[in-house]
Amino acid sequence: MMTEPDRHERARGNGSRDPWANAPTSELGDQVLPRWFVLTAIAAALAATAVAVVAFASIGRDDLPAAQRRPPPDPNFTTAVGAVDVGTAEPVPYDAACARLDGVRVAGSEADRARLRRGLAAVCNTDLPAGTAAAVTDFAEDRGVVRFATFEATGVDSTASLPDGPPVILINTRYQRTDAAWIAPLIAHDATLRALEPGSATAALAAREAEATVCDRLLGDDSGSRSCADARAVLTLDDPLAALRGAGFE
User: At 250, is the secondary structure helix, strand, or coil?
Assistant: First the structure.
């Protein structure tokens, strides 16, 4: 075991200066990192983590592979969106909805509610796949609410509360300024995902299929809807399930 004097002696014998010669040692003679070094290392690690988070948040949505543009669920929502900002307006029934949407409610300003009704009407007027139609009807029968929200993850188009919470579909506020019909594929997506196992790749793929189907039947190929473009991009991957698993789905 090398003692403190031994290290000093060896350093002098080599004619070199040992930068750790004066470093503290434990009671067993093992060298202990100086406190300043430990604190500096911790600070550097924290700074690196902060930089990584900021860098991740700053990645452009379009820079992400299509399968990663809808993250896996978090404890509250079918698609993780970070912090959520929603209004406080009480939901009101969507009167005169089609039978498929009987019971559904909308919330927000008068203009918001009018836009959401147009989006829901587009759902009524679209021939949905059986599974999607059932999921939408279940959402409505549970007096589900559709409203706009601002997400921390600004690039995510929509999300829904998980099955054990109040049934709510939140639409990114950017859709307050687009064709109201673009909301319909989002409702199909989120109702489908909410009805399945949101964390599984097969459910994520089924939701994308529902979304793409509504896009095709309601909007056609050239609608300009980015959610439709994303859904089609996922479905045309060589192995969409593998891509979704690579994005964090199970």
Answer: coil
Report how far residue 210's alpha carbon sits from residue 200's, in angstroms, rounded to the nearest whole number: 16
DSSP SS3 for 61: helix
Residues 90, 81: Cα–Cα separation, whole Å: 23
The continuous run of DSSP H or E covering 134 comes out as helix 130-141
Q: Which two tokens stand for residue 163?
A: 């099955």
**Cα Rg of the chain (Å, integer):** 27
Q: Residue 236, SS3?
A: coil
| Residue 226 tokens, joined | 């980015």
CA distances to 172, 194, 214, 224, 239 from 165, rounded to whole Å, are 20, 11, 26, 33, 32
The backbone torsions φ and ψ at residue 198, rounded to the nearest 5 degrees and listed phi first, read -60, -25
**Angle of helix 226-235 relative to helix 183-195, nearest 10 degrees?**
50
User: Is beta strand 158-160 parallel, antiparallel or unpaired with respect to 168-172?
Assistant: antiparallel
List Cα–Cα distances, 160 to 70, 102, 151, 164, 227, in angstroms.
12, 19, 12, 11, 15
Given a cut of 70, the residues of the chain with pLDDT beneath it are 1-38, 41-59, 163, 165
Q: What is the pLDDT of residues 9-57, one digit of tens each?
A: 554 555 556 655 666 665 555 555 666 666 776 666 445 433 433 443 5
